[in-house]
Amino acid sequence: MQGSTEPQGATPVHVSLVAIPEAAVSTLSGIFDVLNGPTLLHPANRPFAVEIVGSRPGPLKLASGIPVTVHRGYAEVTETDIVIVPSILLPEGGWQAGGHADLVEWALAMHRKGALLCSACSGIFPLAETGLFNGMDATVHFGYAQAFSAAFPQVPIHPERVLVVSGRREELVTSGASMTWHDLVLYLIARFAGATVAQDVARFFALQWHQDRLTPYIVFEGRKNHGDQLMQSAQDWLSTHFSIANPVEEMVRRAGIAEWTFKRRFTSATGMSPIAYVQRLRIEDAKRRLFKRVTGLTPGSYRRRFRIPDYARAGSVAR
Q1: What are the C-alpha distances in Å from 191 to residues 118, 186, 188, 197, 199?
Q2: At 7, is the pLDDT very low, low, confident or very high (cuts 50, 70, 90)?
Q3: Which CATH class is domain 229-305?
Q4: Going by C-beta distance under 8 Å and a sequence separation of 6 or more, which residues neighbour residue 229?
Q5: What's the confidence (pLDDT) of residue 149?
Q6: What are φ and ψ of residue 235, in 5° steps?
Q7: Residues of the chain with CATH 1.10.10.60
C-alpha cells in the first residue's frame, strides 16, 4: 500500500497521527489539516485517511492545555500505513523513558506490518524507544539535540538537516526544528500522491521547502555536560581566547597532559576535535570568514533571511 509515486485509487493511505499529553497542538493540527489538503482542493481525490490515535479514544489535553479528540486507541488500530508523532515538549527533567510503553509497543507492531514511522521535530523521542532508529541517521530540533544524544546515543543525529529518510525501506522519516513538519508532510504527499499534488498543496497553504538546511538558525554551543572537569576548564578558557594564535597548543600546555591524551579526551567529551571546536567559535564570533562553507548562505543572504519584513514593522498598518 506504500511507496507509490502515483495518485492513490479507491483505497487511501491510512495515517495514524499520534496524540500524547506532551504533544504540541500546532504541529498536530497543522499536519492533520495539510495532509487533508489534497481532498480540500479536489474533493473527489482522497489520497489520505487521517485519524488521531492515542492511548484511549476521547478528549485529551495537550501540552498547551488545549484538548483534542482522539479518534481511536492504539488497541483498535491493528494496521496502518503511516505513523506520525508530532513535536512534543520535554519536561523540565528531560525525557523520561518508559512513559509511553503502549505507544512504543504499538509502533513496533505497525512497523512489522510495513508502516512508515515518522516524527516531527522532537517527536522522535518516543519513537527512538523502539530501537528501530539505532544506527540510522535521524534529525531532531537543534534545541533538543544534546538531550536526545544523551538519551539515545546509538542514534546518529543531524539537527542541521531538515528531513532525514532512513531504513531499508525508507520507512523511518524524521524532520528537524519546529516548522520543518511542512517538509515532512509535503514529502509524504509527494511520495504517496505525486509531486504535482504536493506542489498544489504547498501553493494553497503557502508552504515552502526549507532548502537551505537549518544551520543558519543554530547558534553553536559546545557540549559541556560531559563530566570531564579538565576539559570543561579548557572549554571555559577557550570561550574567551579562541582568537589567539595556536589556541589548541595553549590549551594542551595549560592542561598539563600529553597532547594526544588531551585531544582524545577533548573529542570524547565535546564530540568535536579541538581545532574543529575552535573554528566553530570563530565562526560564531564573525559570520563572514568561512561563513558560506559552514552555513550554506552568504552573509547577505543571512541578513535577508532574518530581516523583519516591511509589512511586519511597527506602523506599517498606518502607512
Answers
A1: 13, 8, 5, 10, 12
A2: very low
A3: mainly alpha
A4: none
A5: 92
A6: -65, -45
A7: 229-305
